[in-house]
């Protein structure tokens, strides 16, 4: 008998998740790409208080919390201070959604969990009518880029700023289906 597939569930971020998320943000494999844990936690906390179109979720794999994923509307950030860091935001169609993700427990890195989470989250957003998703990993984060490629994302651009490069990647419902 083949092993059963593990179930993935997304639970909206709540106040009680914040200590766990902060602990994950402090871990080297997350902090390296997400930045200062206190600043990142403040941004995640702001999702609970503001309505800018960003939605954050704790990811559960077979009822165990394993990561964080968020969706956001790039169109809501064009023309703001974020454009200084990411001018490409002004070029994204308004119906596009952005996605960010990290895996919390270090022992789950490089085990195929990331692509599965990303695919499940993309399926969820596409079912709600989103026509295109983008993600913008640091070009040096080869592990993340490879996970996004495994999930079906393809590069469509690159942004260089202050000696750092970001790869702009996208996926559409038809690409997700072809990557299955």
Automatic annotation (TrEMBL):
PANTHER family associated with the record: LYSINE N-ACYLTRANSFERASE C17G9.06C-RELATED
Molecular function as annotated in GO: N-acyltransferase activity
Protein name: GCN5-related N-acetyltransferase
Record bears the keyword Transferase: yes
Domain N-acetyltransferase: 8-174
Annotated pathway: Siderophore biosynthesis
Keywords, sorted A to Z: Antibiotic resistance, Transferase
The keyword Transferase is assigned to this record: yes
GO BP of this protein: response to antibiotic; siderophore biosynthetic process
One Pfam family in the UniProt entry: Acetyltransf_8
Residue stretches spanning the membrane: none
